[in-house]
Amino acid sequence: MLFQTSSSIIRPLIFKNSFFILNRLKFSTTSYTKSNINVAPAPQGIPHYLTHADLSAKEIYNLLASAIQHKYNVKYLNKSSGAPLAGKTLAVMFSKRSTRTRVATESSVTYLGGHPMFLGSQDIQLGVNESLLDTSKVVSSMVDGIMARVGSHSDIETLARYSTVPVINALSDKYHPTQILADLMTLHETYGPQPSSPSSYVAHQTHPSQTLPGLRVAWIGDGNNILHSMMVTFPKLGIGLNVATPKGYEPNEEIIKHAQSEAKSSQTHLMFSSDPREAIKDADVIVTDTWISMGQEEEKVQRIKDFAGFQITSQLAKEGGAKSDWKFLHCLPRKQEEVSDEVFYSPRSLVFQEAENRKWTILAVIDALMVKKSFD
Fold first, then answer.
1. What keywords sit in the KW lines (predicted)?
2. Separation of alpha carbons 177 and 174, rounded Å
3. Residue 291 located in a structural domain
4. Which of 124, 218, 351, 357 is deepest in the core (most CB within 10 A)?
């Protein structure tokens, strides 16, 4: 009887307290995500790296030249950086898991003498328990730079809008600029002058603006953030781009228009198709990526069906008419349905060289924003 009496007393209290807590939570959630107050953005003039659409061809080439020089200095001269970031902290805010980008970022900051502060999804929840605006203002007041890997591209734009320190896009659903820098650096090393021995390096002796224009790249895959970054980068650098995506998986229409405008201005080749063979015609480089990005796992069965015929194989390259010395790129991680082992592990494949170059290009971006404070 005593237990029953206690329960009858406790249950209403639990219900009332639960009702109170739920209402408090509802109120709190609303306050985090919605605000009618206009908050002034951070002062203008702070350099950010969100998309290559914001940069000129010269600024992109400057980043590439810097990355190439860093690689030569560190790997071949064993040269010290002089620790220009001593006492400085880069907040590495990743809401999505990462291998190459995280390792490249942390090792680069360490080389420059700074401290990389990793804040994963278990440490900081962007826009969940605190608005992005508030997070940006708070975190940027305590660190010297922010590198963020987010979902929506609008998240990285909000962080940059209110941050008082440089913000670097480590990946968003719309763009992945650091990946494209590594691709470009790898192509420069491949199509520029070659060293006389594996132990020497000559890429720094030639500017990438002399080796990259005139190349033709074929993208065979999804209309995703990697392709978007190629589309806003390659035309302004004079690199031809052929795109083949399955029907229904085309790139963003706004970005298509931007790329077409850039291609027209630079008189650079640009074409879109749903036929991989058509896109591969005369390609120097064939590129693909994952068919199933993070957050699309439930679409796996349908996507594999829709991407039938898009696997990169030697036979596909031959049927499409790629150049005899064509090369292959993939940003990793890779699945076998995307590219055959025959291609992926062949001398044509530049994937592991490109993966290493993620470090040197990210190092160049951090150096530009946190040390030089400029892309010039």
1. Amino-acid biosynthesis, Arginine biosynthesis, Transferase
2. 10
3. yes
4. 218
Look at the chain and report how many structural domains it folds into: 2
Instruction: Name residues whose C-beta falls within 8 Å of residue 192's C-beta, 6 or more positions apart in sequence.
Output: 202, 203, 206, 208, 210, 211
User: 3-state class of 167 per DSSP?
Assistant: strand
Task: Give the residue carrying structure tokens 């940059």.
Answer: 160
Residues 191 and 315 in one domain: yes
Together in a domain, 154 and 213: no
Check: CB of residue 266 under 8 Å from CB of residue 307.
Answer: no
Instruction: Give the pair of three-digit tokens for residue 162.
Output: 């209110």
**Same-domain status, 79 and 96:** yes
CATH number assigned to the domain comprising residue 301 = 3.40.50.1370
The answer to whether the CB of 233 falls within 8 A of the CB of 61 is no
* Residue pair 29/157 in contact by the 8 Å Cβ criterion: no
Q: Do residue 213 and residue 317 come from a single domain?
A: yes
Task: Based on the fold, state whether residues 155 and 221 are members of the same structural domain.
Answer: no
Question: Hey, CA dihedral for 197, 200, 202, 203, is it positive or negative?
Answer: positive
In a shared domain, residues 205 and 72: no
User: Which strand (E) or helix (H) includes residue 265?
Assistant: helix 253-266
pLDDT for position 36: 53
Whether residue 299 is contained in a domain is answered as: yes
On the question of pLDDT at 17 being above 50, the answer is no
Say whether 331 is catalytic: yes
User: Quick one: tokens of 85?
Assistant: 């970031």
| Rounded to 5°, angle at Cα 237 from 99 and 188 | 55
Whether the predicted model's global pTM rises above the 0.70 cut: yes
Angle between helices 57-71 and 177-191 (to 10 degrees): 70
Report helix angle 57-71 to 351-366, nearest 10. Answer: 110
Please give the pLDDT value at position 10. 38
Residue type, 13: L
Residue 223 is encoded by which pair of tokens?
A: 């209309």
The parent domain of residue 313 ranges over 177-357
93, 142 Cβ separation under 8 angstroms: no
Residue tagged active-site, from 331, 351, 362, 369:
331
Which amino acid, 173?
Answer: D
Contacts (Cβ under 8 Å, ≥6 apart) of 100: 332, 355, 358
